[in-house]
Prior knowledge:
The structure holds two protein chains of two kinds.
Chain A: H1 5-8, H2 14-20, H3 23-43, H4 50-70, H5 74-98, E1 100-102, E2 105-110, E3 115-116, H6 118-136, H7 145-163, H8 168-184, H9 189-209, H10 212-222, H11 231-245, H12 256-259, H13 271-304, H14 308-332, H15 350-368
Antiparallel strand pairs in A: 1-2, 2-3
Helix pairs in contact in A: 3-4, 3-13, 4-15, 5-6, 5-7, 6-7, 6-8, 6-14, 6-15, 7-8, 8-14, 11-13, 13-14, 13-15, 14-15
Chain B: H1 2-44, H2 46-54, E1 58-63, E2 70-71, E3 77-89, H3 97-107, H4 112-124, E4 131-137, H5 139-147, E5 155-165, H6 171-174, E6 177-179, H7 182-187, E7 200-202, H8 205-209, H9 211-215, E8 219-225, E9 231-238, E10 246-247, H10 252-261, E11 267-273, E12 279-285, H11 291-294, H12 299-307, H13 316-319, H14 329-338, E13 348-350, E14 353-356, E15 359-362, E16 370-372, H15 374-380, H16 383-393, H17 395-404, H18 426-432, H19 439-446, H20 456-467, H21 487-497, H22 505-511, H23 521-536, E17 555-561, H24 568-573, E18 587-594, E19 601-607, H25 613-630, H26 632-646
Parallel strand pairs in B: 2-10
Antiparallel strand pairs in B: 1-8, 2-3, 3-4, 3-5, 6-7, 8-9, 11-12, 11-19, 13-16, 14-15, 17-18, 18-19
Amino acid sequence: MLYSRSSLHTAFSIREKFFYLDYTLLFSILLLGIISIFAQFSSSGGEFDYFSKSHAIRFCLFFILFLVVSFVNIRFWNDYSLLIFIFLISLLIIVKFFGIQSQGSTRWINLFVFNLQPSELMKVGIILFLSNYYHKISSGDVNKFRYLLYPAIAMLVPFMLVLTQPDLGTAILITISGIVVTWLAGVRWKIFAYLTGLSVVLAPIGISFLKPYQKSRILTFLNPDSDPLGAGYQIIQSKIAIGSGGLFGKGFLNGSQAYLNFLPEKHTDFIFTLYSEEFGFFGSALMVFLYFLITYRIIRIGTVTRSIFGKLYCYGFSTAFFIYVAVNMSMVLGLLPIVGAPLPILSYGGSSMLAMMFGLGIVMSCNVYKNNAIG
Amino acid sequence: MLSFNSSNIISKTKTISRRMFLLSSIKAVVLIGIFARLASLQINESTKYRSLADKNRFRETKIAPPRGIIKDYFGNKIASNNKIYQLHIVPDNTPDIDVLFVRLKSIINLSNKKIFLLKKKIARKKNWDTTVISDNLTWSEFSRINLFLHELQGAQPVVSVARHYHDNTSAHAVGYVSEISQRDLRTKKYLKDLNIEGVAIGKTGLESTLDEEMLGSPGYLRYEVNAYGKKVKQVATDVGVKGKTFRTTLDQNIQQVSTEALQNVSGAVCVMDIYNGDIISMVSSPNFNPNSFVHGVGKDEWKQLTENLKKPMLNKAVSGLYPPGSTIKTLTALSALENGIVNPNLLIQCKGYIDLHGERFHCWKKKGHGVLSMRSAIKKSCDVYFYEVSRRLGIDRLAITAKKFGLGQKVLTTFKEEKAGTVPNTKWKKNQIGKNWYIGETLHSGIGQGYFLSTPIQLCLMTAQLANGGFKIKPTMLVNDNNETNNLQNYLDYRKEFPNDPSTIDQQMSNFNIEPLFRNQENINFVKDAMFASSNEPGGTSYGSRHNNKKFMFAGKTGSSQIKRFTAEQREAETKQIEIDYLERDHAWFVAFAPVEDPKYAISVLVEHGGSGSSAAAPIAKKVIKKVIERHKIRTAQANQQIGQDT
Lengths: 375, 647
C-alpha cells in the first residue's frame, strides 16, 4: 500500500471539494436539523419564541461552520489538534474562575453574544487530541507505560475539571470518548480490565461523594414508583408521553403531555419525548434511523480515509455520537437513570450543537481529503 | 521513512479495523434494544399509556404568590392583600361545558352575556388551560359551589389573594393593579414565565414600577386525580415566594390631611424632606378608588373617571405639566445675582407695565408697585421688575440655573408616567419649533410663562434645594434599605459642631462629597429671606396665609400660570378669575419651606384653574405644613429607631 506522490499534495478547487462531500451524511444532518427546528417550535407551544428562534438561527450558522470545517485540509486539523486541546483545557480553567453560575453549577463562560459551555466542546476535543496522538506514535509503542501516561493525563484533567463544576454526566461522557479512542488504537484489553476492576473497588467511595440529588436519581432509576413525585416523576411522565403517542402520534403541536408541563426540560434533554409523542412510533423510528444512518456514514468515511488520524477520529467520533444518542434515548425511555445528556443536534443548546457540527465537519474533511496522507 | 510508515500504518489499521468491527456490533445491539423499547412502549403498551395520559394521574395548578406589601414610613399598610374566592374551570376535565354553565348559572350570578364572553375566551385557549370564571365570589357563593361540587366536574373553587388598598389618599402615588392585558404580555418580559390565571399586575405608580419585585414567584400544587378528574390526594405543594415588601417615605397621616386640604379642587400637593429628599406626601386630587380596578373596573365607573374635567386618573404631582408662573422668580433672581448681572439693591420703577419694541408687557397689578428693590419685588411678586431683570439676564443663563435646580427633567425613577417638562432656551426653540428666540419671550419666561412647563414635584425639589442652602438632593419615595449615610446631613452637622474649621467651604464640601448648586451662598440666603418676606411681612403675597406661631412659620412664593392672556377689555374691567370659564382660569401655585428658623421640609401646592396662588394655593399649604411640622418629632423618632435596629 504505497502512496503515489500526487496524493500527498492534494489541493482541490472548491468545485472539487463539493464533489467529494458525502451527500448522504450531509442531507441526513440537514434533515435532522430541520426536524429539530420543528420540534423546538412545538416545544415552545407553537410559536417562535426565544428558544425556537435561537435554535433555528444556531442551526443555520453551525451548518455553515460545518461546511467550512469540511473544506479545510484534514492535515490542518491533525497539526492543530494539540493546540485545540490545550485551548479547550484553558477554557475549562477559565470557567473555574470566571464562569457563570446557574442552578448550583458553574459551566459557562459569558461571551456576551451567548454563553459558551467548554465541557461540551471538550467531548470533541479529546477525540481530536487522542487520534492525533496515536497517529504520531508507532504501533509498537502503544502499550508502553510511558506512552500510556499522556492519554491518561489527557483524560483525567478534563474529567476532574468538569466533575468539579459539578457536571457528572458530561465528565463521564468525555472520559468514555477518550477511552474509546485509546481502545481503538490498540491498547491492551488487560489494561482496561484492570481499570474496570479498580473502578468497581473505588465506586462505593465515589458514591459517597455524590450529591444527594445524584444519589436519588440512581435509586429512582432502580425503582421509579418509589418516588413518583420527585425524581421518578420525570421518568414516569416521559414514558407516559412516549407511550401515549402510539403508532402515528398525536400530530404536530398536539402533544398534550408536553404542553401540560408534565414534561421537564422539554427543550433540552426531553426533546425526543416531545417529538415521539407528536409523531408516534413511525416518527421515532425515522429519527432512530437517521441517527443510525449518520453513525454508519461516519464509520464508512473512517474506513475509506487513509490516514490513521482520520480513521481514529471518525471511529471515535461515530462511537461518541452514538453513545450520546443512545444515552439520551435510553434515559427518556426509562432504560437509564436521568443523567442530563442532550440529544445531538435535536436538543436546545448552543455549545452542544457547536461541538457536534464542528465534529461532523472534521469527519467530512476526512472524506474530502480521504486520499491525503498525513506526515 | 515512507516504508517504515507504511508498515506501521498497516499494523495500526488492522488493529483499529478489528476493534471497530467489534464496537459496531455492540452498537447494533444497543440500537436494536432502543428500537425494541420504542416498539414496546408505543405499540404494545400504547393503550395503557394513552389512558394514563388522558387521565394523567397528576395535575398541577399554579398558586398565585401573595403580592408584596406597600407600607408607609411608619409601617402602616397602604396596599396589602385580602383573601378572595375564585372559580376556575378546565374544559378538559368537564364532560359537557354547556351543561356546566347551566348548572353554574343556578348557583352563582352569571349573566348570559358573561357566559357568551367566557365561552369565546375558552374557545381561544387550549382545552387543558384554566379559565377564570369569576375572580371575586362572595363567601356564600363559594360555599354553595363547594356543596354542589360533585355535579360540577371541571369547576375548581380556588382560594387566592387579591390586592386591597386601605384608602384612596395614595391612589396616585401607589397606583393600582388590574388584570393582565395582551399588551402587558407583549411589553413586559417578566410576565412570560408567570402564566397564572387571575393574577393582577401593577398598572400605574409604584405598583407598576416595582411590579416585577412585588409579584414574587408562583408556587404549585400537585395532586393525584382519579379517572374522573377528581382530586384524590394532594401530593406536593410549593407555596412559591412571596413578593418583596416595600416601605415608602410617605406618611399616611399627612396624605390624609393633604387630601382633605385639596377636597373639591383639582390639584396636587408634594412635601419633601429638604436634606435627604424623602417624599413625605404626594397627593393628586381628585383621587379614585384603586380597589375598583383589582377585579376589573365597571364600564360606568371608567367612563366617569375618564370624562371628568378634573382628570382623576392623572397623577398631577408628577405628570401634570403647568407653567411655573411667579414661583420661578426665585430662580430668576438667583440666576441674575449668581451671574453678577444685577445687585439686590437695584431699584426699578413699576408703572404697571413696560413697553419693549412696541409690545406692552403688563404687571399683574394694574396700578403698578412703584419703586422696588429686588427683595420687595419678590415679596410682592412684581412682574415688571422681573421683566427688566430677565431682559438683562437672558434666557440661556436662566435656563442653566433652572435645570440645575431640577426643572426640565424627571425627578424620580419610580414613576413611569412622570413627565420631564420644559426649560426653554434659544437652542431648544430652534430645535423644537424651528424659529429664532424673541426677546419678548425672555420676558415671559422670566416670570414663568410662555414655554416653561413644570410639574409640582419639580417645583417642590426646587424649593427644597433652595431651602437647604443650595445643595443637590436626590428625591426618593422608597426607604433606603442599605441605610446609606446622608452626606448633606453629615456636612451640616459638621458645620454646626466645628463652625471655625479653617479649611475653605469648597474644601469642606468636597470632603463630604456634596454638590453645591451655587457660586455664592449669600445669594441663596437672599432669596430665602425674600421668600420669608413674601409670607410673613405685610404686603407679601402670601401674608394672608401665614402662621403666627414661630414653630409653624413658613417662607413661600406664590404663583399663577396663565392659561389664556387677558384681553384689553378684561384688563380694563379688572375681571376677576372667578368670573371667567373654569377651563380658562389660571393655575394657582404655592411653594414654601418650613419652619423658617431651621428649615426641614419643602412643599409645593398646585390648584388647577384655581385663580391666584395667594387665595387658592397658599391656604392649602398652610394646613398641610402645620401637620407636617407636628409630625416631625414622630418621624425623627422613627428614623432613629430604624438606625438603632440596623446597627
